[in-house]
Specification:
212 residues, mainly alpha, 9 helices, 78% helix
Length: 212
Amino acid sequence: MVSPERLLAFAAMSFVLIIIPGPSVLFVIGRALAQGRRAALTTVVGNTLGAYVLVATVALGVGSIVERSVLVFTVLKTAGAAYLVYLGIKAWRQRGSLQAAFAGAAGARGSLRTLSEGFMVGVANPKTIIFFAAVLPQFVDRAQGHVVVQMLLLGLVFTVIALASDSVWGLAAATGREWFARSPRRLSLVGGIGGITMIGLGLTVATTGRKD
């Protein structure tokens, strides 16, 4: 099974990626600002379920191919690293885009619809797709066997962290909407820091991993 060291390393890298505001976080913040805590938390649950569907997809399909082929792994890792750097540069250049979360207040919606919309955002999040496909296989200990189980376990660690982090974002946005609204520069700063961090994460992905 996965060693404690690999679990901790994966959890640390997951945490860095998760805390960076991306499509899912923006969606959660928008729901919190427009509809309040309940809608935000329901959206978070939907996002988390969508993310774990991606974990299962990688573990049962793409991940097995990547795990067996050094060439596929290298190509995918390089593409994933490049995309993370691209997202980081984009986040830096458009760091004021978090203000879009304040645009318009949608009417109240049913919990099931809110959950399903959160799910769709989670399962279509490009940042998460790239992370699972390019990074998740790096933390599998092939010598221990049970590759699929290891990936599912690592993915569970990611989703638990994501559930906690996104919930904090949603609750903070719902509680501090007036504080955010008074200073657009605060959201801009969050986006800028997130962009720089994502660039660093992309470079880390590009320079680490299997050597066999």
